[in-house]
């Protein structure tokens, strides 16, 4: 099933997701029965206190880690049913990633970094789409530069373009602005939002920053490994207020 009850397409979802790290006395239940859908062509932010399971949810939803129980889907593909080879292909062909550390290849130019996933897939990609992306991230005059010659914000913009290069079903971003000053961070968040609104792509972003979350169409809140709330049309103030409610009164 790829639709929700409202008829919106679902890019990714987890159902009754449980993730336990370790075993016995030291076991940590990072996800404790989370069910959440990430609608296609939407920008969803995942928020919650430190240790609430945000990164674990992102990693399991993206096929970077496996659930202890429950199911994770990309489109109509259930990840638990895939062997290692198919999972690798799915991550390569249908999912994009942006991490806090830009993870660019230092010896390659900006242009080569952007198209690297396509070359690894043995596919030149769609030149028109790559061209559009280069304009979306504003890097046309930097294409022959190497990462060391770029600012942090520019490096993350390369990583954003790379994540979208293969037209993935969904781009997962884990604290993509964590290393950036607020201005560069705003630029990168604006790009993620534009990629969703102008090109109909899907983004799921983990952040601890209410200002970052306010760039999303919707925020989902985790606490203690559970989904506790969703907020449409978020503002930074409303997200901050919701986060304050998680704080234990002293
Ligand atoms: N590899 C691991 N081994 C053991 N425990 C882990 C591992 N990864 C995460 N955890 C634990 O699982 C829980 C959830 O961690 P997770 O990183 O998903 O939270 P988070 O909400 O992303 O936190 P933060 O905002 O601090 O990054 C935490 O208690 C964490 O210590």
TrEMBL record:
<protein>
    <submittedName>
        <fullName>Putative ABC transport system ATP-binding protein</fullName>
    </submittedName>
</protein>
<dbReference type="GO" id="GO:0098796">
    <property type="term" value="C:membrane protein complex"/>
</dbReference>
<dbReference type="InterPro" id="IPR003593">
    <property type="entry name" value="AAA+_ATPase"/>
</dbReference>
<keyword id="KW-0813">Transport</keyword>
<dbReference type="InterPro" id="IPR003439">
    <property type="entry name" value="ABC_transporter-like_ATP-bd"/>
</dbReference>
<dbReference type="InterPro" id="IPR017871">
    <property type="entry name" value="ABC_transporter-like_CS"/>
</dbReference>
<keyword id="KW-0547">Nucleotide-binding</keyword>
<dbReference type="GO" id="GO:0022857">
    <property type="term" value="F:transmembrane transporter activity"/>
</dbReference>
<dbReference type="InterPro" id="IPR015854">
    <property type="entry name" value="ABC_transpr_LolD-like"/>
</dbReference>
<feature type="domain" description="ABC transporter">
    <location>
        <begin position="12"/>
        <end position="249"/>
    </location>
</feature>
<dbReference type="GO" id="GO:0016887">
    <property type="term" value="F:ATP hydrolysis activity"/>
</dbReference>
<keyword id="KW-0067">ATP-binding</keyword>
<dbReference type="InterPro" id="IPR027417">
    <property type="entry name" value="P-loop_NTPase"/>
</dbReference>
<dbReference type="InterPro" id="IPR017911">
    <property type="entry name" value="MacB-like_ATP-bd"/>
</dbReference>
<dbReference type="GO" id="GO:0005524">
    <property type="term" value="F:ATP binding"/>
</dbReference>
<dbReference type="GO" id="GO:0005886">
    <property type="term" value="C:plasma membrane"/>
</dbReference>
<dbReference type="Pfam" id="PF00005">
    <property type="entry name" value="ABC_tran"/>
</dbReference>
């Amino acid at each position: 099933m790829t639709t929700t009850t409202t008829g919106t397409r679902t890019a990714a979802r987890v159902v009754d997701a449980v993730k336990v790290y370790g075993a016995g006395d030291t076991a940590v239940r990072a996800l404790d029965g989370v069910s959440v859908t990430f609608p296609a062509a939407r920008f969803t932010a995942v928020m919650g206190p430190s240790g609430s399971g945000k990164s674990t949810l992102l990693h399991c939803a993206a096929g970077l880690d496996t659930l202890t129980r429950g199911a994770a889907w990309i489109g109509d593909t259930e990840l638990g049913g895939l062997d290692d080879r198919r999972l690798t292909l799915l991550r390569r062909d249908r999912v994009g990633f942006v991490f806090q550390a830009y993870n660019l290849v230092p010896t390659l130019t900006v242009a080569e970094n952007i198209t690297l996933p396509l070359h690894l897939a043995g596919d030149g990609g769609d030149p028109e789409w790559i061209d559009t992306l280069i304009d979306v991230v504003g890097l046309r005059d930097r294409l022959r530069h190497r990462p060391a010659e770029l600012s942090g914000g520019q490096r993350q913009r390369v990583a954003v373009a790379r994540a979208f290069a293969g037209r993935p079903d969904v781009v997962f971003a884990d604290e993509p602005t964590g290393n950036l000053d607020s201005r560069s961070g705003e630029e990168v968040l604006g790009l993620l939002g534009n990629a969703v609104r102008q090109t109909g792509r899907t983004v799921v972003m983990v952040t601890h920053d209410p200002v970052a979350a306010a760039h999303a169409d919707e925020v989902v809140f985790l606490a203690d490994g559970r989904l506790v709330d969703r907020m449409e049309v978020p503002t930074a103030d409303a997200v901050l207020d919701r986060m304050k409610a998680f704080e234990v009164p002293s």
